[in-house]
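Here is an idea for our session: we take a single protein and study its fold together. Start from the sequence, derive the backbone structure tokens from it, and show both lines together. Once you have written the record down, we can walk along the chain together:
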Amino acid sequence: MPIFVERRFMKRAFFWFYVLVFYALCQLIGWGYMFIKYVPDRKGMIIGEGMIFLVIFVLGVIRLKKHLSHERYYAKQQQNFLLAVTHELKSPLASVKLYLQTILKRDLDREQQKSFISNSLKDIERLDYLVENVLLATKLENRSFNLPKEDFDFSALVNEILDRLQKNSCKTEILRPQIEEGIVLHADKFAITNVVTNLVENAIKYSPPCAHVEVKLCRKGKDLIFAVADRGVGIPDDEKKLIFNKFYRVGNESTRKTKGTGLGLYIVKTVLQKHDASIKVLNNDPFGSIFEVTFENYAN
């Protein structure tokens, strides 16, 4: 259903909801008055039964209103998601198109061509990453979907991801890895790759230009700890639990400048739940955030 049609439907649903509530209350009061008028000797019983019905009715109304409000909120989040995805797709596509047109129309030297092709590949990687996120989020919606697990070198995987993201970020060294070598994880490699990429890219995205982002992987007793610390503006305490909701993004949608679809942290949380792992958000003094992932009893 198109978003504008769905929003109109929700408005109509709320209108008729209030109309029906008003009508039901009028009927309740009217029938109660008639019963008391014509059967006055049963006034106490009628009032008692009416109060019980009224309490049940009010509780039902409150529950239904919460459900409708949730649906309206979810529809708004879906609209924001579609707008964000449209922008995320349009921007790199326009960039790649411009680079290719420039290469075709102008007589560029080899170094300029390599530079344009390299930038085009970065935009294509960004598109591929977005598509992977959407596909994985769709699969995770299916409760019967199981992640295929295998043993792989988690330390090597994190280093590979950091090398790739470092090349795509600013020229100065901003990623500070503290990776303990030889850590093996039994998990879905593709899904865990997505988790690491989402957390590190978020840290880069919400940090000042070329600020330091610390990435840590280590054993702690029998647990494995993976943590990403940024130097951004931080996350308010009342939003720390909400950021893992599907389509949720911190801040006001009309004033937000950072890119994103609101799927990244939802995927992170869901993938970790399927691996019996946990994630928490800590404050990074004096400013910024730390996302700390714990794989319990995974240390080898």
In short: Residues 43-105 form the longest helix (63 residues). Residues 1-5 have pLDDT under 50 and may be disordered.
